[in-house]
Amino acid sequence: MTVSDVGGQKAMSKGDIPPIVHQRASRGRFLRHFLEMIVAMIIGMVALGTSVAAILALLGHSDLLHYAALRALLMATYMTVGMSLWMRYRGHSWPRVREMAGAMFGPFILFLIPFWGGLISGGGLLAGGHVLMLPCMLGVMLVRREEYSQDHRVHSKYPVTARSIERAMHGQQSSRNR
Length: 178
Description:
By secondary structure, this protein is mainly α. It is built from six helices and two strands.
């Protein structure tokens, strides 16, 4: 039996868990990761979207939100910020956060081309970006299935600390992210 100390708690290695139980637990954790990111995106979209709309209204520029391309990029940003904060809180590395951010922005950027060409409407841009975002995120998660199927306490050997966040905000990378 292999036991290690993770965050003050004993954790058994995957080899100690019967395969059927491990597969169910892994699928459950994978789904939980996915759902947590979706909730974080919604919270980011509501919180930041409301704040930006209020600020633009106070400045007398609320009409800017009527431009579909700008609105699509802002919404992708709001959702990415919420999801990124949650992923870092859960201990994911910056490269994993960047991958997921790419999966979130990619669909909107892809739909901007036909939108600017007049082939789809603003509603089509927004709907298409949102609909394609979830399969893109799922694709990134499937590529990194091992990480997203693990318990949050063990999927990162470098937990997020106030110091690591401060370094990241000031543009300093730690040696593990280089």
